[in-house]
Amino acid sequence: MSSLLLAVIYLIFISLGLPDSLLGSGWPKMQSAFNVPSSYAGYVSMTISFMTIISALLSPRLIKRFHTKWIVIVSIFMTILGLLGFSVSKEYWMLFVIAVPYGLGAGAIDASVNHYVANHYSGSAMNFLHCFYGVGAMISPYIMALALSKARWNEGYRWTAYIQAGILLACILSFPLWNKTEKASDEEEIRNSAGIKETIKVPGVILTLIAFYAYCSGEATCFLWTPSYFAGTKTGLSDELIASFGSLIFGGLMLGRLISGFISNKLGDRLLIRIGIAVELLGIIMVFISAAHYIVAAIGFVIIGTGMGPVYPAIQHMAPTNFGKKYSAAVIGLQMASAYVGSTFMPMVFGIMQQQIGIAIMPVYLLIFAALNIGLLEMAYRRADKQL
Q1: 181, 120 Cβ separation under 8 angstroms
Q2: Among candidates 133, 135, 157, which has minimal Cα distance to 26?
Q3: pLDDT digits (tens, 9 = 90+) for 215-255
């Protein structure tokens, strides 16, 4: 039963990844339809992220009050409403209204399912879980591309909503599995779990949040600016080739999480993070020394993504170990909020910096966040170990 439920949870994380790539892949056509500048996609994206941060901060209360399966059901339903709302939007301002359920659903399901897996499954399962998120994020651009070739951008959102509805039905049918997998003591532990105000005072928590913020800042910067890095530092590349470099980090992340899924139970979360960041640093060095040749830099970005791969899942998975199950729900909710803050604002900060200094500064920017990530985590480990 535990394995069957885990399969359903993997399906849930595919559903979590599905909406995330739609706005970027559909925006060129959406921009024309709404007759707005291309930069206006950023305002919609930030609204979705802001609502996701709110729901992540509310997740400890939700987990304490409601069963995870109900949070999943309501969250996926809200995401479906968001997708259908986008598909019928006639004016640009309508996207901001629809962004509310769109974002709220993502944050709550992300934090609650991460908390559930961290407390009931191994580190291997957590890495595979985040690998399946990448599967969803990579599928949706193809759905939008098919919609644009056969119909309009609206259908891309509508077809994705239909897929989400199928996943929602599978989750409803899986209700008996949740009850059979859990122990009698689980409900009592959740009732006695700590809130955010109490959790933030636990030694090591704030350091972990800043470390998580640093990790997601580097990751999101790579998501947004990798193609621009090649355009600004390498010569003789076609527009199609430059655009394809946007997949380098995603491919590396999925590879890193796939490998980690097989070895994480043997190595443990902390060692896996140390190895991952060491691999990330190797990739950054390769990008830094690549000079004018793009192949070395391309391999470097894949290696950066591979190294980053296990960091996010491992930090989430070790929350109960580092801080105890009493604080794990609040810690994971705070981690999700700090992650979205970093991924929302720091790529924009890099954009301002590169305008003034030049985009060649990108490896140095990534190096700073990688150093902050590992340094703060090591400090957090020491403080958490003294507390337990």
Answers
A1: yes
A2: 157
A3: 988 888 887 787 778 877 777 777 667 766 777 887 888 88
Query: What are the two backbone dihedrals, phi and then psi, of residue 90, each rounded to the nearest 5 degrees?
Result: -105, -25
What token pair was written down for 47?
A: 């609204």
Residue 214's CB is within 10 A of a number of other CB atoms, namely: 23
The pTM assigned to this predicted structure is 0.78
- Are the beta carbons of 135 and 17 closer than 8 angstroms? yes
Please give the class, per CATH, of domain 2-192.
mainly alpha
Alpha carbon distances (Å) from 370 to 225, 274, 318, 345, 350:
17, 11, 19, 17, 15
Q: Where are the domains of the chain?
A: 2-192, 199-387
Tens of pLDDT, residue by residue over 28-73, are 778 888 888 766 777 887 888 888 888 877 777 777 777 778 888 8
Both structure tokens of 322: 């580092």
Given a contact cutoff of 8 angstroms between Cβ atoms, the answer to whether 236 and 292 are in contact is no
* 3-class SS shares of the chain: helix, strand, coil, % to 5: 90, 0, 10
**DSSP one-letter string for 6-43:** HHHHHHHHHHHHGGGGHHHHHHHHHHHHHT--GGGHHH
State the burial class of residue 367 (Cβ atoms within 10 Å of its Cβ: 0-12, 13-18, 19+).
middle
Separation CA 159–CA 19 (nearest Å) = 11
Are 2-192 and 199-387 in the same CATH fold?
Answer: yes
Q: How distant, in Å, are the alpha carbons of 9, 260, 297 from that of 129?
A: 8, 11, 29
Q: Tell me, which fold does domain 199-387 have in CATH?
A: Growth Hormone; Chain: A; (1.20.1250)
User: Under 8 Å CB-to-CB from 188, ≥6 apart: which residues?
Assistant: none
